[in-house]
Amino acid sequence: MNIPRTSYPRIVIIGGGFAGIALAKKLSKQEVQVVLLDKHNYHTFQPLLYQVSTGGLEPDSIAYPIRKILKDFPNFFFRLANVEEIDIKKNKVQTNIGKLKFDYLVVASGSTTNYFGNSEIERHSMAMKTIPQSLNLRSLILENFEEALLTSDLNERNALMNFVIVGGGPTGVELAGALAEIKKGILPKDYPDLDTRMAQIHIIQSGNCLLKGMSAKASEKAEVFLEKLGVNIWKNVKVTNYDGRTVTTNSDLTFDTATLVWAAGVKGATIKGLDAQEFVSRGNRILVNEFNQVKGFDHIFAIGDIACMATKESPNGLPMMAQPAMQQGDQLGDNILNLIEEKPMRPFEYTNKGAMATIGRNKAVVDLKRFKFQGVFAWYVWMFVHLFFLIGFRNRMVVFVNWVYNYVRFDREARLIIRPFKNRVED
Amino acid sequence: MNIPRTSYPRIVIIGGGFAGIALAKKLSKQEVQVVLLDKHNYHTFQPLLYQVSTGGLEPDSIAYPIRKILKDFPNFFFRLANVEEIDIKKNKVQTNIGKLKFDYLVVASGSTTNYFGNSEIERHSMAMKTIPQSLNLRSLILENFEEALLTSDLNERNALMNFVIVGGGPTGVELAGALAEIKKGILPKDYPDLDTRMAQIHIIQSGNCLLKGMSAKASEKAEVFLEKLGVNIWKNVKVTNYDGRTVTTNSDLTFDTATLVWAAGVKGATIKGLDAQEFVSRGNRILVNEFNQVKGFDHIFAIGDIACMATKESPNGLPMMAQPAMQQGDQLGDNILNLIEEKPMRPFEYTNKGAMATIGRNKAVVDLKRFKFQGVFAWYVWMFVHLFFLIGFRNRMVVFVNWVYNYVRFDREARLIIRPFKNRVED
After folding, report:
1. For B17-27, how does the pLDDT look when each residue is reduced to its tens digit (9 = 90+)?
2. Do B193 and B290 fall within a single domain?
3. Among A83, A288, B5, B306, which lies 20 to 30 A Cα-Cα from A155?
4. Residue B343 contacts A, CB cutoff 8 Å
């Protein structure tokens, strides 16, 4: 990779998610050279992916070009690259576009869907961690409705109109709510020939509550909201397999569905060279100390979802969410500068600003430190916070226009099969 | 295809473009059954595809779900289907999802890129007739810049940063203008390491003027505008081949480029069963009489780009544009109803409302019947007309927000490689 060598130390960041971008921004005006590597040329605002999948938002408005975020900083370099291996002995990363030496390395590669080793589920189910994945899910949902119109086999139609979401975290809950609103608002208008009662939405949760990380009140209320929307909630049920048609569980319960969304877990997106057992915790995350340093190294760090930093409150590592990622990225910026200047580093302390999830129109749950509330006001707070954290004025405006429109018209106009998932046709 | 038979006559429309939608709307409240078939579930506003390709607009805002356009009409059926053959003897269409009998058939299948039989150009060049194609071009342009950063081979870099557009019609002119603005406004900020002078934009035109169908004044002025933007215009040059790297022409002139956009011609998208020589004119269009009837049939029609209706002003058929398509669709609605009621049909008369093209910021050319003007005011007219004809309030709002943003900030934020064209990575 031809990146000019300067007298500044070179910090290589792998990944342009919340953590990587926060760090790059912090370092951008300093006397360091920053090289950010990502396999996409854009930052993805993951919390809104489910709205892309359900036709509520266009993909381009929750993505932001990485080059633009950091365009005014002369010592910043971006390369569209897939990191294949980290050579921790020679301080190099190997990518699909060449090798790169680093003085400091920050792994911010995020997380990926965890199928817990079940390759059949992996092959047949849909994930929702990237924009292309979300668009595939959008296409599949719409293709299923189109196909349901064509079949006279009732079992087949049933499977096509059934949606099973595995995992009762925010992704699962938000997606279930959005699908329920499609069932209610869009389906009867777009497909008057289909019996909408057949469109069942199931959410399967292995534990005994939804939104596990949130308060009991939030969890209860989310359940009430989902039930109001007609979502079937199955708690204490573990999915054991899915062959593309039937979901089997650890009980007698089975589900016939053409669409299984797997939102049951994530794991760290480790990279060869830093994936040995000595570095990695449960859930494939890289163990780091309170300065985000990888065990045994002063100059190699991990931040965000990929980093497993045990704290008093979270002995198994901080939650894999945007907040800790942004805070770690921000603070690591200071710490690396301190390290370069041979000043002491400051241990990371997570400030939990709360959590929230939206279930549907006027329905959200918010847990702040002091206040926990649910309902209409929570829904406004949820929207405001998400608009605020979206990067870019244009993105905010476009998302806002869509939300107002969808709210006023009970609609979702991006129900477009731009690239079919099942039945590819010529472009 | 299980579409219920009613006592109403069944009108099958192939294609949800400007012509097909106009016709379906006209027929929607009448005592007929309308079945619209399209291989996409959305209508595409083709005049703005070049803005999707150049990162100015998101694809979803120039697409509109067909089901939504016609959702309030109980006798309207849409099926996502690819029509494979028309059986003119048995009055049936064969599609990938089954057969369908018709009482009346309207072919509105539009046009497709015409490579004039050169399969090498077809294989290596980019077309821009559909949203997926436009997104592929967007990805390719951005991937080329990313690759240009990596190579130290100057010829290679030159080819990656060179853009050759073949065809000086509105598509070619508008795309050339947009690329020139990217060169000026985006390239220096996003890729400070690249020498932007290497990004050359060439437009090659086989005839002796740009925008052939428009006035001499518009054509001249378009040329002046493009030259101001730094576009290289090559007139009276015919492209003879392209091997993926070098464009050869009928003169000594050659171009080294990794991106050839083929906007040199379109032809009718004929369908098996109606593609015999007796039905088809030059340019693969189906010959129709003044009632849009296909030769030899009372009940089979063609409208829009696919139809070749010779008139006094246009002996070789009306121009392949949105205006004639919409007018024909609209009037055929009346004529089919007349036919059913055994009333006389009214011959189609084309009302030419004018033509326009935009070249860039504050630069457009407009030919109306009485007024021809160019420049800033023309640019506002162009924008207003395009916003007006876009289907859907949400689409208009989102496009408007993007245009205002792009204008004020000299920016194009949808420069996202959502699905790479060259180097596919895992989703």
Report:
1. 999 999 999 99
2. no
3. B5
4. no
